Amino acid sequence: MGLPRRCERRWRCPLKAQPQQQARLIEVQQLDTRLDQLAHARRSLPALTRLAALEQQQATLDRDLALARTALSDVQREVDKAEADVALVRARAARDQARLDSGTGTPKDLQALQNELVSLARRQGDLEEIELEVMERAEALESDVAALEKQRAALEADLTTVRAERDAAFAEFDAEATEVSGRRNVVAPEVGEDLLALYAKIRTGAGGIGAAELKQRRCGGCRLELNQVDLSRIKAAPVDEVIRCEECRRILVRSPESGL
């Protein structure tokens, strides 16, 4: 037995759904749209942009701070070596001076001690200049590290503030999304599996809008006004026939405001 003429044209019979089911579908669409809006708002929260910028600053600052601390550590070792060198020369000079003051030894030995003290004094002067230069570099690096640590602390405070702002906004979005999802779970079963499955398939490839109302001769999905031929076809269709927009192929749900 052949298919009815309408079914032969479309190769399958049109989907049927009671007007109440189609009206429920619009409610599902509205709830899905709100869920999409909440997801978008969550992804595009301004705090996320600020947080990303602050975290980038933090990474840069941490790198600079690590380099400054390493440089300070290296210079501090130079300071320690310089201090040790000076201390060594001073100790040697003190021993020589003590021997010279005691007057023990031959005149030649005492003369040698005097010569060595002169040499040690010059050596001590040179080492003290090196020590002073290294200590000045160490002080400059200590100042740099302190400044970077202060910036790091301020940045961490900003991060804490922005993270708290983000978390508070996320909590609001998630709470509303939970409430909207709960309402959707109540309404969706009243649509019917077949109509809901068609809606979901269309919605995936139509920018999140799978069903729209026909209002004042205009499709609520693509916003285009239907021509008279399409309007006549829709007006003649049974109330339980699921109508599709000829332009965007979304499900069109008729209402008292359809203009038919």
Tally the beta strands.
4
Query: By helix and strand content, what is the structural category?
Result: mainly alpha
Low-confidence stretches at least 5 residues in length (pLDDT < 50)? 1-12
Q: Residue-averaged pLDDT, rounded?
A: 91
Main sheet summary? 4 strands, mixed
What level of helicity do the residues show?
Answer: over 70%
Topology as a string of helices (H) and strands (E) = HHHHHEEHEE
Oligomer: single chain
CATH fold annotation of the largest domain: Helix Hairpins
CATH class of the largest domain: Mainly Alpha
Number of discrete helical segments: 6
- Terminal Cα span: 35 Å
Please compute the radius of gyration using only Cα atoms: 43 Å
Domain tally: 2
Strand line-up across the major sheet: 2-1-4-3
* Beta-strand percentage range: 5-15%
Gross CATH architecture of the largest domain? Orthogonal Bundle
- Overall geometric form: rod-shaped
For the structure shown, list the relevant keywords.
single chain; 260 residues; mainly alpha; Helix Hairpins; 2 domains; four-stranded mixed beta sheet; 6 helices; rod-shaped; disordered N terminus
